[in-house]
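Re: the request from the purification team.
They wanted to know what the chain is likely to look like in 3D before they choose a buffer screen. I agreed to run a prediction and write the result into the notebook, where they can find it.
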Amino acid sequence: MSPEFSLGWEVFEIIWINLLLSGDNAILIALACRQLPVRQRRWGVFLGALGGVILRIAFTLVVVELMAVPYLKIVGAILLLIVAVKLLIDEAEHSDVKAKPNLWSAVGAIIMADAVMSLDNVIAIAAAAHGSTNLIVFGLLVSVPIVMFGAGALLKVLERFPALVWAGAGLLGWVAGDMAAADPALPAFVHVANHKALELGLSIAGCVLVLAVAFAIAIYRQWREDQRVSRD
């Protein structure tokens, strides 16, 4: 794989992961600011999104440093697999997000909630960027216009084309496998002559695992629903 293609693929991964995982943050911002006057609402959206992204950049840089510790990349990969499956089987609830009465309370609520909600985003971006600070900052800055302006359009597209969500979850599984392959502790357990082959194998395995588990859960839930309807 050429360096140019590799860089382009990493950029694609980061942008697509942001598109998928920033949707909840965008909805939170809209709900927190919905009672503000129009002018203050714009500032609330901008400042809240900007503050959240700055926190995420700081968190991600810390996570990148921690990933050098043996086994932590494997733990991060497992968390990413869980995030990917939940992306397909969970329906987010936002009704408990309260509108704030003034600009600064809205901004504070957005930044705090964004920090809590962004662990999945942080781990995924750190994995996709392969430790590159420039790519991390770029990927997280991409989320600013997505969070501020693109949530409504993005949700409509994903509702109309649910296959895009499955593709994105598969990508997260791919990134998780790639992250696990890069863990410094792995060579002690797995001895392979070609590490690139190991990366490819684990990436494919992560992608297939996410899609298979989510599909099995969806089938099981449908079966339970059919059983409930038949009893009624």
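For the purification team: The first helix runs from residue 3 to 21.
Please add any questions underneath this entry.
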